[in-house]
């Protein structure tokens, strides 16, 4: 796919005249309905329970009331996103039951997990992220990149919908965990917009703006942007590289053009682009033992940061960075073919580029003159060494991928609307735009690793030549995904509905990679070998070029998935439902693992769910939603560590189909208005996970990797699954005169229980909680100006987001979460 082909594809999509569209008059009526149901100001919390049942969602690819959808889901309006200061995927996970996020490599590379379904590094996502009904572009790189909500995704949205459980029939890509839907605002028939600025501590500056222009009744245009900068909250004490880590620096632009081509025929094009460049997130050493040699050096590093505070770390890379660039064009054509048949076509093309240079464990080891039993380290004294870092070389990405999708949908009804149905076809093709990868020094001192200027410090000190190494891993990934699906709901009675859906998916992944290991028997003199046995020169001798190490791997998978369920309305505003669904996640290739661990077969899950959605109105109004579920997880894709007892190869990781698990839990969400002006809302999730069976592969005879360490054992809990997670929000509108505007104070409390980050003795994250405060003043003095004051983590709680347990080497690293942040927002609204 080239840029020159995009125009013809979009023109062809329009020429197809396919999709679901409303006539212009109906569209305007629907637009007006959405306006009347919206909060009076985007600065309000928007959580009034009396109208929760009227929230419109698209969880089943059509517009429905939230309370009518038999799916466990959490929905946030744009106002709620703003009041909780949600600017990235990790922020979203804080407030969503059963949703967790890992940002081990920073906010640009966040991945999601729902109900224990985790994305292991170099597997496809277990949680699909969709913007305007199009799946997020793939990364396909050496680390987790892409497949998520990019920088600047959380502005000018109708809502964000988090769907829990397998999404295996209606959505484009099969997932076992769930889906996150970002629904952008439409271009409207009114001239309107806003300009907003924010300022806060850590020199935070953010500016947003949206302009909506109706050129005519048939042509509507909307454009918006979001940009933010903030200093890092982690002070770097090493003196190498930037002074701060954890900073924010991004911009995002989005434009929407809607055309009413004819009665019942509408075409929408969305063009978006974003760029985020920051210093990344670097863990800090938090614990150590005097284990020689690395524990001893770690303790010296911990001593250097003693008394410097909680928010510190140390770095050994002179130019760390996290860069993510993405652009995407989406074209949707909607055609109302008849009263009972609508057709929709959605086509998209996206490109993603990612560059990450990170000190993986935050190690900046300083070699002392006297080192344990070594009386004199000689010329090595004073050198800085790393335990491990991961870096894309200058000018080269570690992910550079294009993604093209095409989806054709048919939506219809029959038998006096007692039967509603959908059917369609899906295609996704992702191709490399260049070769991508990384250089990773292990136990080395590298002033310029891109130029292979490295010294095997520990090998020299310990008298083990070649102990340290520089890993070079580069290649390409190609993905092909196809699916056919159909789903129907039939009203057996006015208050009883039966739903059944079926989909078949075909997937193919191809990797072409070259993996080499460089040893330094003399400083700055690399000698390269192909890392994996059987690849490269006969006898495993030195290589002249990494092309000698190239290997190609292909894996194909296919599977049916389905859903069956019953919905029952025993009374108005009461929905009871039960369903059984089969979920599937495709097999994949892990080219950075040694044979025979380079291919991974698909995993599947059987999910059983019972739920209730209720709404009550009157003097006290509100909603209460409850879901209970049980998952039987099979052929689970599990990470294992591969080590060489003789240090004949650098430690690495593989993904194997080793596990079976059972996951059950309860999710509850409620909102209530006990009296006028006062709202309460909250959620609670309980997760009980257990690995019921696991088969650890045995090392092949003669394999250089003779030690295999699993990331799970029989009877253990699954990673990133806190047993309890809860949030509660209270908001009160002050009794001011209407001439003064509307002022609302709110507070949100969030609790996340203890969770396993890695299956090691010290690989557990402690429970944490925090409090957010917000004060909004909408329509100040009857003017078009709004203001808000916010405080995030108001009590200044200190906790960690990740943990790397390297106790065998003598140290532990963790990533501190953000401290207290606060600021002021001002908005000017114009037009309607």
Automatic annotation (TrEMBL):
Xref: SUPFAM superfamilies: Porins
Residue ranges, annotated region (Disordered): 31-50
Keyword Transmembrane: yes
Protein name (record): TonB-dependent receptor
Residues of the TonB-dependent receptor plug domain: 66-179
Presence of the UniProt keyword Cell membrane in the record: no
Classification lineage: Bacteria, Pseudomonadati, Pseudomonadota, Alphaproteobacteria, Sphingomonadales
Keywords assigned by UniProt, alphabetized: Cell outer membrane, Ion transport, Iron, Iron transport, Membrane, Receptor, Signal, TonB box, Transmembrane, Transmembrane beta strand, Transport
Family: Belongs to the TonB-dependent receptor family.
Domain TonB-dependent receptor-like beta-barrel, chain residue ranges per copy: 319-777
Top-level taxonomic group: Bacteria
Pfam families per UniProt: Plug (PF07715), TonB_dep_Rec_b-barrel (PF00593)
Membrane-topology annotation of the record: Multi-pass membrane protein
InterPro entries from the UniProt entry: Beta-barrel_TonB, Beta-barrel_TonB_sf, Plug_dom, TonB-dep_rcpt-like
Principal location: membrane
Subcellular location: Cell outer membrane
